[in-house]
Amino acid sequence: MKHGFITVAAAIPSVRVADCKYNVEQIMLQMSEAEAQDVEIMVFPEFCITGYSCQDLFREQLLIEKAENGLMHLLEYSRQLDIIAIVGLPIIVNSLLYNCAAVIQRGSILGVVTKTYLPNYGEFYEKRWFASAQDLNPSEIYLAGSRICVSAEPQVFVTPQGVKFGVEICEDVWAPIPPSNNLALAGADIIFNLSASDELAGKHQYLMSLLAQQSARTISGYVYASCGFGESTQDVVFGGNAIIYENGVLLSEAERFSFQPQMRINQIDIERLRSERRTNTTFINAQRHSQAREVATKTVNEHPFKLLRQIAPSPFIPADDVMRVSCEEILNIQVAGLAKRLVHTHCDKAVVGISGGLDSTLALLVMVRTFDKLHLDRKGIIGVTMPGFGTSDRTYMNAIHLMQSLGITLREISIVPAVKQHFEDIGHDINIHDVTYENSQARERTQILMDIANQVNGLVVGTGDLSELALGWATYNGDHMSMYGVNAGVPKTLIQYIVRYCALTDDFQEQSTYLLDVVDTPISPELTPADAEGQIQQKTEDLVGPYELHDFYLYYFLRYGFRPAKLFFMAQAAFAGKYEDATLKKWLTVFCRRFFSQQFKRSCLPDGPKVGSISLSPRGDWRMPSDSSNSLWLEECEQLGQL
After folding, report:
1. Helix axes 631-639 and 564-574, enclosed angle (nearest 10)
2. Which of 20, 35, 40, 46 is catalytic?
C-alpha cells in the first residue's frame, strides 16, 4: 500500500463441478497472476474449490475430504506468495456442514468465516445441506493440518499496514441487515464477498444497485466475485461477476457470460474512505456498539507500487452521460437560493456587475431564470457594465450584447474618472500598476453596485466563484462583497461547463454565440491596461496558476483532507503528459500558501448556496482560524519529488 491505495482483485476461475483438483489448479493460476501484478488481497467465488452447484454431492464424505485436501494444496502453494486469498469450501464443525470462506496467506489459515443467511427458495436450497453461522457454537477444529477456532463471532482482518477487511458470503449481502454492516462499523475498510448468484432477466441491474448502495451505506470498498462458466446449467446459469466498488462508485466490472477465466484488479483508496467516515456523524453514531475480533495477517515483502486506477483530472466536472442533468440541477439550486432571498426581502430588483467574463455571465443567467420563475419583469435586473483601465473590446461587447438580448435594464458607468480622482485623493501614481491600482478599481465597482441597489431598493448579486474564494483571488470589500453570492459553491472549471450548457439550451438560444465566446475568452480581472490591439494582457492563470490544477487540489484537500504528498502523487497520474512535476509542485505550493493566507476573506463571506460536496462557507462546511500557520503544508511541498 502507498498513499492509502491498496490493490485488490476479484477472480472468476475456470471450474468443474466436484473436481477439486482441477479447481485448485485454476485458483493457483490466478493467485500467481495476481501476485505478479502486486495484488495484496483477492477473493474467489463461493465454493470455488468444489464448485457451487454440487447439490446433494455436498453430502458425500469424499467431496468434503477432497475439498480440505485442496485447501492444503493452496496453503502449501501460498507459502511462496505474499498475497492474501479468500477461497470458498464446505467445512464440517461438530458434525454440521457449513458454507465457509477461508482466508489464507503464506501457508496459514488466518481465519474461517461461515455464511449466515442461507437461501431456501427458487432453485437454491442451501438449508438442505448446510447450517447457518447462527447455529454455530465456537469450536476448535483440525483443518488442513492446522488447529483453527471457528465461531460466528465477526472477524476483521488487519494487514501490517493497518488496512482492515471483512468477509461475507453471497446471500449475506441480500439480507435486511447484512453482516457487512457490523464489519464496516467495527472498522473494516473493505468487504469481500464470495458469491454464486445466478443470472435472471433484470437481476444484474438489481445486484449492481445493491452492491453500490451497500458500499456507499457502509462507506467501504466492496469486492465481489461470483461463479461463472463451468458451473452446472441444469436449472440455472451463472454468468460470472467480478465487481469492485468504492463508496458507491464502480471501479471495475468483469464481462458477464465469458467462457474464459477472468480477474478484475483495481485499487481502493483507504485514506479517502476513512476521511469520509470521520466527517460523517451518522456513521460515527452508528458504530458505537459494533464489535469484531481483529485477526492479524502476516508481514509481507515490500513490492514496487504502481497506480492502477484512473484519477479524474477534473473532479468537479460531471461525467458526460449526466452532464446535462447535473448542470440543470446546479442551476436549479442557484435559482432556488436566489428566489428565496428575493421573496424574503420583498425585492423585485437585483443589481449585478456584468464584465463579459464567466462568473458574471453565469450569475446573470441565474438571475434571468429566477426572475422568470418568480414571474418578475426582467427589467428588474439591473446589469451594470463598468469599463475600466483594462476592459477589452471583446468582453465589453459580450457584456452589452448579453444584457440587450436578455431584455434586462442596462446601465453603463465608466469607473475611470472616479478612480483617477481617487488616485489623486490618496496620492497614488496612476502609472504604478500595483495592488492599490487594481483594488481601487474593484472597490469602486462594488461601491457603484451597492449604491444603485440602494437607489432601486434591490440587492446586489455577487459573482465570485468557489475557486476564487479558495485562492483569495478577490478584492476584500470589493468584488468579495455582495448581498447574495449565487456562484459561491461553483468552481471555475465547472462554470465553463454550465455556461456552455446554457448556450445549447432553448432558453438561451438567442444568446448562444455570445455565451460560447465568453467560455472561450481568457480568464482575467482586466485591471491592467489591454495591449495596443485592445486584447487582454492580464491573464489570471498566468498569475495564480491553471484553474484546473487549483480545482483539483481544492477538491481533494477540502473533501478528504489529503496531504500535499498525496495531492502531488495523484496530480502526477491525473495530468500525466500535460504538466511536468516541477509545474505541479509550483502551483501546489501556491495553492497551499494562498489557501491559508486568504482565509480572512472567507471568514466574512456573504450568504450563497452550496451546490456540491465542497463549500467554503464559514457558517457550515469550512471553519478555520484566519491566522493558521501553513508551515506544515509548505514544508511537505518543499520535499515533493524527494519523498
Report:
1. 50
2. 46
The answer to whether the CB of 204 falls within 8 A of the CB of 22 is no
What pLDDT band is residue 289 in, cutting at 50, 70 and 90? confident
Query: In a 10 Å sphere around its CB, with 0-12 CB exposed, 13-18 middle and 19+ buried, how is residue 134 labelled?
Result: exposed
Cβ neighbours for 206, distance < 8 A, ≥ 6 positions apart: none
CB 610 within 8 A of CB 469: no
Q: Is 54 a catalytic residue?
A: no
Instruction: Based on the residue annotation, tell me whether 164 is a catalytic residue of this protein.
Output: no
- Residue 489 pLDDT more than 70? yes
Helix (H, G, I), strand (E, B) or coil at 268: strand
Biggest CA–CA distance in the chain, Å, is 101
Burial of 179 (0-12, 13-18, 19+ CB in 10 A): buried
Average pLDDT, the chain: 94
Tell me which DSSP letter residue 522 carries. P
- pLDDT at position 201 is 92
pLDDT at 535: 61
15-44 in b/e burial notation, b at 16+ Cβ within 10 A? bebbbbebbbebbbebbebbbeeebbbbbb
Q: What is the DSSP string of 193-247?
A: EEE-PPP-TTHHHHHHHHHHHHHHHTTSEEEEEE--BTB--SS-----EEEEEET
Contact call for residues 503 and 515 (beta carbons, < 8 A): yes
| Residue-wise pLDDT tens digits, 598-629 | 999 999 999 999 999 999 999 989 999 999 99
Has this prediction a pTM greater than 0.90? Answer: yes
Could you give the C-alpha distances from 524 to 310, 518, 538, 547, 579, in angstroms and in order? Answer: 32, 11, 6, 12, 22
pLDDT single digits (tens) 402-461 = 999 999 999 999 999 999 999 999 999 999 999 999 999 999 999 999 999 999 999 999
Q: Alpha helices, DSSP H only, in 521-580?
A: 540-544, 547-560, 564-574
| Closest listed residue to residue 100, CA positions, set 145, 148, 31, 57 | 148
138 DSSP 8-state letter: P
Q: How far apart are CA 430 and CA 9, in angstroms?
A: 65
pLDDT in tens, 37-92: 999 999 999 999 999 999 999 999 999 999 999 999 999 999 999 999 999 999 99
DSSP string across 303-335: ------S---S-TTSPPGGGHHHHHHHHHHHHH
- Which residues touch 55 (CB under 8 Å, ≥6 apart)? 129, 232
Return the ∠ at Cα 238 (arms to 236 and 240), rounded to 5°: 170
CA distance 574 to 27: 34
Amino acid present at 18: A
| Secondary structure (H, E, C), 36-97 | HCCCCEEECCCCCCCCHHHHHHHHCHHHHHHHHHHHHHHHHHHCCCCCEEEEEEEEEECCEE
CB 202 within 8 Å of CB 177: no
Query: In angstroms, rounded to a whole number, what is the distance separating the alpha carbons of residues 499 and 331?
Result: 10
305 or 379: whose pLDDT is higher?
379
Is residue 329 flagged as an active site residue?
Answer: no
Which of 54, 100, 170, 502 is catalytic? The answer is 170
Q: Which grid coordinates belong to 168?
A: 461475507
How many other β-carbons are positioned within 10 Å of the β-carbon of residue 96?
Answer: 15
110 conformational bin, left if phi > 0, alpha if psi -120 to 50, beta if neither = alpha
